[in-house]
Design a protein that fits this description.
Blueprint (H helix, E strand, L loop, with lengths): L4 H9 L4 H4 L7 E4 L1 H9 L7 E8 L8 E9 L3 H15 L3 E3 L3 E2 L9 H9 L13 E3 L2 E6 L9 H13 L8 E4 L4 E8 L11 H17 L16 E2 L13 E5 L5 E3 H7 L27 H21 L7 H19 L5 H23 L6 H7 L11 H7 L4 H7 L7 H30 L4 H10 L6 H9 L1 E4 L2 E4 L1
Parallel strand pairs: 9-12
Antiparallel strand pairs: 1-11, 2-3, 2-4, 4-10, 5-6, 7-9, 8-9, 8-11, 13-14
Helix pairs in contact: 1-6, 7-8, 9-10, 10-11, 10-12, 15-16
Length: about 500
């Protein structure tokens, strides 16, 4: 294992660009030990909130080590649990990760937090749901700069460019930064209104957080900011762990004593995130629960919910829907909301249910027009865009994408699924078909090997020799599909 000499050299070279030299007095990176890094990230979070820890380790489905859940730890127990996490890393020699934003108790699916601690101590980690839905506090905005490799900038040069952006007021000054082995982490710690406690991850704050993350990625695109590392529950290497790919220890730094914290709206203002991002999203983020007969089909309504939320995200990404696209966007939004409400409302009378769905969709479309169209459509044009009728055709997602001129970059930045150009939809379908074909080939290969009476290790070796990833669990599952009939193996 290398020491952190590389980290020290990177810090020494950071800030030596022409603009940064002017502010050299404030650029004094201070290395934080593990406990100091924990306090900087989580000291103001609710004590019962959960920090998700992960580790590079194999699972039942993937034999090669990859970032995987390890142990949830309450904020109030972090300092007590760190020694056990360090001991686990020394034993397994695999990198560990954590989540800058904390989760709620709903993430625990297998019992109390004490149960998780007990099973982790026994070497049997239990599953917990590290998902965006379970994030309860937004402790930080963050970026992962994929530098320090191939022909890309060194970590020190990258930090110098970051400081230049800060001096030019293109970025807020980072609260913390970390040397992640090869790359660089940047953190902007968040606080609530008049309180050091992080903002709650409600619908409005989560929406604004995502917009700020996208803006940060764009501002640092020349520094190879990872656009995929922008989930609220994203894993980042924890302070003090060792990067298994390089042997470097991960070190977190603060820029001088103390940790600067920002209000989320202030960061949005500095990043020029459009004011439309400051309003509550027009639609709910999850389908309504069924209330009774006649409607109440949230699973069937999910595609329409996805379409309407993607229209909102696309509008926010563009800073509003401009002239030439407003009618198409309003019509598609109204149509999606009407279909969604019709499928989730509970009413035995279909006519009454249709009328209610139309009224709710019209109200939401009016809000969409006033908040996300630049400028808003006139009352007459708005009425034309949301007039229901049997002749109104149902547009495909690719048709809407063509009408709104959705680009490949917008699909990647907003991770669009429902509203994508035809060539992306076709490529995704081909990928699914190809994967299904590969899965069928792997299944047939294992089935033939089982029928020949080969042992599990021999089957795994044979499959890997032909380019298929197979583990013991998969072989045992396929073997369970067989039963013995007159001494012969046959599929059930």
């Amino acid at each position: 294992m290398k020491d952190n000499a590389t980290a020290e050299r990177a810090c020494a070279t950071a800030g030596k660009t022409p603009l940064a030299i002017e502010r050299a007095g404030r650029l004094r990176p201070l290395a934080l030990d593990e406990n100091e890094a924990v306090d900087s990230l989580y000291s103001h979070c609710l004590p019962d909130n959960i920090v998700a820890f992960g580790s590079r380790r194999p699972s039942a489905r993937r034999p090669d080590p990859f970032p995987h859940f390890l142990c949830p730890v309450c904020v109030k127990h972090l300092h007590n649990q760190l020694p056990g996490l360090r001991a686990h890393e020394l034993e397994t020699k695999q990198t560990q990760y954590w989540t800058p934003n904390t989760l709620g108790p709903s993430a625990l699916r297998k019992g109390s937090i004490e149960t998780y601690y007990e099973q982790f101590a026994k070497g049997r980690p239990l599953y917990f749901a590290c998902t965006n839905d379970n994030v309860t506090e937004l402790g930080a905005l963050f970026l992962d700069l994929d530098v320090g490799r191939d022909d890309r900038p060194t970590p020190g040069a990258a930090m110098g460019s970051v400081f230049d952006l800060c001096l030019a007021e293109r970025l807020p000054w980072p609260s913390l930064f970390g040397l992640s082995g090869r790359g660089v982490y940047l953190f902007w710690m968040l606080q609530g209104e008049g309180s050091p406690r992080p903002p709650i991850a409600n619908q409005a704050n989560s929406h604004l957080w995502s917009l700020c993350e996208s803006a940060l990625v764009k501002r640092c695109a020349d520094l190879y900011a990872d656009a995929n590392a922008t989930r609220m529950c994203n894993w980042l290497k924890r302070a003090g762990t060792v990067d298994t790919k390089t042997g470097n220890r991960v070190v977190y730094y603060s820029l001088g004593p103390g940790v600067q914290r920002y209000r989320l709206p202030d960061v949005a203002k500095l990043l020029d995130v459009h004011s439309v991002a400051l309003v509550e999203p027009t639609v709910a983020t999850s389908p309504a629960k069924p209330l009774g007969k006649g409607g109440g089909h949230p699973k069937a309504a999910a595609p329409w919910l996805c379409r309407s939320t993607e229209l909102e995200r696309l509008a926010d990404h563009r800073g509003g829907i401009r002239k030439g696209f407003r009618h198409h966007a309003l019509w598609a939004f109204f149509q999606a909301r009407q279909k969604y409400h019709y499928m989730t409302l509970a009413d035995d009378d279909n006519r009454r249910r249709t009328a209610r769905a139309v009224k709710m969709a019209q109200d939401e479309t009016r809000r969409f027009n006033s908040q996300r169209c630049r400028p808003p459509q006139s009352p007459g044009d708005l009425k034309a865009a949301m007039t229901p009728g049997k002749k109104q055709r149902v547009a495909r997602g690719t048709t809407i994408a063509r009408s709104l001129a959705v680009t490949d970059d917008e699909v990647a930045a907003e991770r669009l699924v429902a509203i994508v150009p035809e060539h992306i939809r076709a490529a995704r379908q081909d990928q699914v078909k190809s994967q299904k074909g590969r899965n069928a080939e792997r299944r047939d290969l294992v089935d033939r090997a089982i029928a020949k009476g080969l042992t599990t290790p021999a089957i795994i070796a044979s499959a890997e020799a032909q380019g298929f990833q197979v583990n013991r669990q998969f072989v045992h599952t396929r073997r369970a599909k067989f039963q013995s009939l007159d001494g012969q193996l046959s599929l059930i």
